[in-house]
Amino acid sequence: MASTGSTIGDLFRLDGRVALITGAGGAFGRAIACGFAEAGARLFLTDLDAARLDATVTLVRDAGGICASTPGDAGTSADVDAVYAQLDQEFGQIDILVNNAGRNPMQGKPEAFPFEIWEDVLRTNLTGYFLFARAAGKRMIERGRGGSIVNVSSIASASSLGRGNLAYGVSKSGVNQLTRELAVEWAHRGIRVNAIQPCQFLNEGWQRMVADPNRSGLVQRVLSGIPLGRMGEPNEIVGPVLFLVSDAASMVTGALLPVDGGTLALNPTGSLPVPD
Predict the structure, then answer these.
(1) Residue 201 · residue 28 · CB < 8 Å
(2) Of 81, 164, 177, 213, which shows the fewest CB atoms inside 10 Å?
(3) pLDDT per position as a tens digit, 135-144
């Protein structure tokens, strides 16, 4: 719903809203949770890794945020149902969903790609997004006050990364179309559905690669494709997601927002300018 008579700062506030964030124990989920809490949202967090989830909950509560949580597998229907049962009990509403949980166990050549890995990645990265969105949409429709969903996609959804990212790229391409379909289906319900497309960010995995001299070639290859010349920091994902879920984006739905330092703007055959 569009906001009228508000200051610019008010447009980005989330007071009175309940936000569910999946994958809340990871770098993106943790940063988004802390950012949303600062913006006034009450949080319900979930992650497969209970220890990492607890660490995020502690950070949010130590900063004065209101937060509840339960661990669960984002790609398992029974676990998704359990998450929502607990959320209903704790808060009785959902206004925001951030589909962030994901897996990318990179494998070898497509002709030898393990079927069980393929199934696991699509189950978590795509089916899980559908399950969480379906349950959120049902509750938002019943409440009659609309809502906002943001799906975390990837630059891998728009062009191939190679390097064993087959299942990951396919799953994220599916996330893009899921975003469009739900945005159109639920627009008349006041539910906005958007996605972000991050490039490589300095999560735990990329931090290890940057620190590994044996992976310096890959790191330089990645950096050569990011016009801003660096990987993202996890806290740099907060602003784009906050914008999309807030009243500042009240006329934005079905959008795929690159958060990629210009990666998707650079043609693979192109070259970055030489610094002066």
Answers:
(1) yes
(2) 213
(3) 999 999 999 9
**CA-CA-CA-CA torsion for 253, 255, 260, 264, nearest 10 degrees?**
-170
How is 226-261 classified by DSSP, letter by letter?
A: -TTSSPBPGGGGHHHHHHHHSGGGTT--S-EEEEST
Closest CA to 57 of 83, 88, 29, 82: 29
Query: Which residue matches tokens 């959320």?
Result: 87
Contact present, 23 and 71 (Cβ < 8 Å): no
Instruction: Please report which confidence band the pLDDT of residue 5 belongs to, taking 50, 70 and 90 as the band edges.
Output: low
Per-residue model confidence as pLDDT tens digits over 185-223: 999 999 999 999 999 999 888 888 889 898 888 889 899
DSSP codes joined into one string, 44-108: EE--S-HHHHHHHHHHHHHTT--EEE----TT-HHHHHHHHHHHHHHTS---EEEE--------S
Residue 46 CA to residue 53 CA, distance in Å, equals 7
The least confident of 6-15, 23-32, 55-64 is 6-15
Listed range (106-110, 124-128, 153-157, 262-266) with the worst mean pLDDT: 106-110
User: How do strand 67-69 and strand 191-198 relate by DSSP bridges?
Assistant: unpaired
Q: Are strands 18-21 and 42-45 parallel, antiparallel or unpaired?
A: parallel
Can you tell me whether residue 110 is helix, strand or coil?
helix
